Amino acid sequence: MYQDWSYLASVLDFTPQGGIEQKTSGQIVGWSLPKQPNTELVQNAIDNTVARHKPDANDLMFHSD
Q: Which is more confident, 62 or 19?
């Protein structure tokens, strides 16, 4: 049985999708799943997102809790 911990960082897309209610997709667009909870966890999640979706850096905002 596998008992080691892994840590997940995910990047969600909250781009307004238009319309009166301005709904967002809320889709996971990037992630990282390492064995250590460190700054590389977040950086790898962002790098994964940029590599997969190639967003315009002028339109990005990043927030973490």
A: 62
